[in-house]
Structure prediction request, 119 residues.
Amino acid sequence: QVQLEESGGGLVQAGGSLRLSCAASGSITIINNRAWYRQAPGKERELVAFMNGGRTTYLDSVKGRFTMSRDDAKNTFSLQLSSLKPEDTAVYSCKANVYGYAYGSKDFWGQGTQVTVSS
Prediction:
């Protein structure tokens, strides 16, 4: 159906930056919305950024530091992480709600990528 492949995680010092990317492939008619989630050890998964049409919303703790973007020509979307803090350490996962003629509208997830911020 649809595959989401993430890239860009890693280890960075506090104050540094990383860029995460999510590439969608497969039987895609349209991507309805896109999102980034994160889950830190021992914590519940939280929604970091959500893009629906021309509107993007962010988790309060990342506003002004993280920026979500998309490239429709390549079916990719990204999350720029700046001014990183140790509390941003988590596994980040992308999600897309995709419409395809064969399956209707369905959520697809990336495999997750580790972001570790050292103090």
Summary: The chain has a mean pLDDT of 96. The radius of gyration is 14 Å. The longest strand covers residues 90-100.
